[in-house]
Amino acid sequence: MPNKKIVRTTRSEFAEKFLWLNGKPFSLELYPHMHAVYNTDAREVVMKTSRQVAKSTTMANIMITDCATKPFFKVMYVSPTVKQTKVFSNDRVAPVIETSPLLKDYYVNSKVIQNVFTKALLNGSRIYLQYALLNADKLRGISTNKIFFDEVQDLKKEIIPVIQESTFTSHIKEYMYAGTPKRSKGTLADYWFSSTQNEYMIKCPTCNHWNLLGENNIGNYGVICSKCGKGLKLSGDSLKAEWVSTYTQIKPNMSEGFRVCALHFAEAPWVDWETTILQKRERYSRALFFNEVLGLEYDDGVSPISEMELQACSDNNYPLKTTPDELDRSYAGIMGIDYGPMNSEKSFTTISVVQKRLDKYNVVFMKKFIGKEADYSFIHREIPRLMREWNCTHLAADYGMGEAPNAEIRSRIGDDKVVAFQHNATQKEFCKYNHKLPAYIINRTQSMLMLFNMLKKRKVVLPKWEYSKPFADDIMNIQAEYNEEQTTMKYINIGPDDFFHATLYAILAMKMRDQEELLDY
Question: Which of the listed CATH numbers 3.40.640.10, 3.40.630.10, 3.40.50.300, 3.30.1330.10 matches domain 1-31+43-195?
């Protein structure tokens, strides 16, 4: 047995020395910018990337390196879907473990677990590969030291802290968040904009201009300087480049953020400049090109309504009241409610009391049930009281959480006073009653478009803006997503949208009660 000795090494050194990829030793020779991503010692790392830039390879190599160099170290990988997790396990993790000579000879044998969802090493370390799109129920009971969140842009932000509870007993608690950006609001965007936002700056050898790679660096045959137009080399001894934080004010213990895009990998053997960059620039929409090739957010044209338009709906003479006055009680209002999960840290059960005054729908009271008030038992006691206080004839209720919450309310205020609504993305009719539920099934896109148009035409009146702003954020969290091939549009939420739907349900129920045309706006 040869004498043992401790050798200190960085993650990138270990990966290049001992890991194999595609049948040969792994190398970062053509990708010097990736050394910093491998070697950062930040407790939290955000990797914002375009497609085809070795994101999955990087994550797999880092987790394998950590497990190989740290006995009894446990990491967990989490993606939104089981398919994504299986592909990552089979195509990124398994081949490295199975073909790297050091790992094959000293870290695995027939006695340790090697399946799709668990990879065990002989030094006691383990890699758990999981998925969690809407909730973290499948992950409960797993204890880890480090978690890798993949395709973060598609994960609901409120489930991430729940998943992080798996590191509760660890003294290490490290996290990596990786994904391809979409818009400047959303799960990945939230993590990115609270990080150091590091950009890889490259100095032009011709004019000495420092380049932050973007669309102005795209030449006919490769990456060029955005100032003088000369070609830029991305590797080699003559390269002058460094990671620079673009965050305005660095704070202690801040997460480390790295943007990695296709232009950084222009010298990679798998990149054909014509097809990988130029053709995509011509063929892709501008938003898709920014996201998929440049690794940048793109927002133009996706918000159905602007903040300025919402501010125009606010009546600066009308504060948000906690109790109604005599005038308020003279109108027969309707309360809308959109249920939120009790254990959520971001989405909350929200109510909106709407009154029809002349030809406008006035939101006279709104409330989010937060903290201890988020418990359904409290909400079910409070709703009847508030309905009496604000002279509400009906409760327009979200059916999305099922009939159970509505059944409790029905028992307290009467069956005939609860009007339930459920969204349907494919139903052709605007509104159709389903006796089995019981609930009105409404076309999701058409009904939401109705409310957006009413807001734009100032048919909806909100209280003074300083009171309405926290609730109006729920409206701004809704964005339009266009499918250019199918020429269709749908609304997606990039954050809580509870107030929007509570108000929508109240207005729809009021139109029904007053026998008005639903689509007359």
Answer: 3.40.50.300
